[in-house]
Amino acid sequence: MKDVIKDVRAFVIEEEGGGDYHNQSDNHWIIGEISTPMSCYPEYKKDRRSWGINALGTIVVEIELSNETVGFGVSTGGYPAAWIIENHLKRFVINQSVKNIEKIWDQMFRASLYYGRKGLVMNAISAVDLALWDTLGRVRQEPVYEMIGGKIHNYIQFYATGPRPDLAKDMGFIGGKLPLKFGPSDGEEGLNKNINKIKELREKVGNDFWLMYDCYMSLDLPYAKKLMEALSKFNVKWIEESFIPDDYWSYAELKRNAPLNMMITTGEHEATRYGFRLLLEKACADIIQPDVSWCGGMTELLKISALADAYEVPTIPHGSSVYSYHFVATRKNSPFAEFLMMDDDASSIVPMFSPLLINEPIPDNGKIKLSDDPGFGVELNRELNMKRPNSKI
Fold this sequence. Notes:
2 domains, TIM Barrel, four-stranded antiparallel beta sheet, eight-stranded mixed beta sheet, globular
């Protein structure tokens, strides 16, 4: 059979690029002082690399069929995730039909329950799943968005994540989300700096442009309440990921106390329909933000989104470039998408995964129209230094 999977290969990118924090320049906004779960420790406050944000590199998974068709998927997790794929997960992929995506996903998930469920293992499963969808699209000569329901949005609208929402407005984005710099360990002085930054930006961009804060799991409930109340005066659209992913109770309390003009969002570091079920049942968020390369891949994102639809909660995926775009294009309950500004100072638009992906689309005046190229519509830059883990220890 032509659609039988002949091989699965996992690689780690060992050089700059790939849409993660690996070897970003010292001047990159994504590396500098940002409030994080480690900001309470002074020695790890100034540079996120100091506590290991770049410790795990990008992984690439290739699926090769018996007819030599090759597709690929991308996530993070470095050598540990690649080793899990090569030594455990691939047994559920080899010799299967590429059409058996649901069965393959379920077997990978069930077989890894005793050490997985979230985090590194789910990143690995996500990468395999995205590679399967890309390969199936190449077999059928269809884009992924056609295989998961067809386009609802001919053009995808974006907000930009980066330190310069004022520049994002000039580039045609509908809003700008900036990283919160100061958390609870910075006291009232830091809180006031956060508020003054939004006040300054609101004066620059006017009242109609969205402004949001990404809090990156770094706050406690009293601080988040103070921040939320102060920001409501400046028409901030939402505050994002205020608490650690497992603190559903603080998210629910924050949302109960939110002003009518502000939303609470989270989900970037949540995984599978089971994690999102808790977020939704406990009314933790106005918008959920799964990352398709971390939450379980496209197969699981479709289930997460269907669950969110039942609660009338929009699904706006975190980053992930084309992997998110193909999903958003097909969903009424996903009216816009996120674009991560990967330029050092966010003054220009560059592809999120550059130089890993070839033909990766970028917004023009804040919008993208997806091509009808098969799979996810991009190719892998094979000039990069990609290494496979040792197959056995």
